[in-house]
Amino acid sequence: MKSIQNYYYLYINSDDNNSGATNCKNINFNMDSILQSAPNRQYIENQAYCYVRLCYFAMDIAPDNTNIGTTTTIQLRVGGVNFPNTFETSALSSTNGFNLGSSNILGIIPTGRQDATDFNNLYLYSNVDYDNTFIVMGNIFKGQLNLQLTDQDGTILGDTLTNNKSYNIKLELYFPEDKELNFNNNIKDLII
């Protein structure tokens, strides 16, 4: 079993964003340093990366809200980064000759919308049957965190869904303990 001391949870309320924005589709949080809140966590402060999993998401719109339109899935993305172990497809075009590319999707949430008129009530925002998995990303406790809400096609959600709306998320964080790493400066000792 992994050491429980390396697991942390981060609860984020979109209303707490650093600019006070009331449109929650593209917001920033100043995470700065874990040492402000937990001075004895130098180990975490020194980590270059961590594992992050979206374990809860709730937004204050009803699944049958007509503003959802044809949005069947909400993607929670981290702006300005691509994750090393996460990929997604995109349409071919004159500037894009490949379907596969790196992704910045942190988690996905079904809306219950099947098409423009029908809903599937089996899906909820926090569905216990679907579990987002861990992704690898840079240390979440360092600097700015940009969170974006997009639809199933990767398009930023419209204002009708996000203006004067809030969401709440809970992230599970894991900082691996690798005996071969030198945690003082995050480099691996070379064996020659």
Extended strand count = 12
What is the helix/strand order? EEHEEEEEEEHEEE
Helix content: under 10%
- Rg of Cα set: 18 Å
The strand order across the widest sheet is 1-10-3-8
Task: Summarize the structure in short.
By secondary structure, the chain is mainly beta. It has two helices and twelve strands, in the order ββαβββββββαβββ.
Give an overview in words.
This protein has helices at 42-45, 159-162; strands spanning 7-13, 26-32, 49-59, 73-78, 83-89, 100-103, 105-110, 135-138, 143-150, 167-174, 181-182, 187-188. With 192 residues, the protein is mainly β. The two termini are 32 Å apart. β11 and β12 (187-188) form a beta hairpin. 4% of the residues lie in helices and 38% in strands. The protein is globular and about 50 Å long. The strands form four sheets. Strands 1-10-3-8 form a four-stranded antiparallel beta sheet, with no helix packed on it. The protein has two helices and twelve strands.
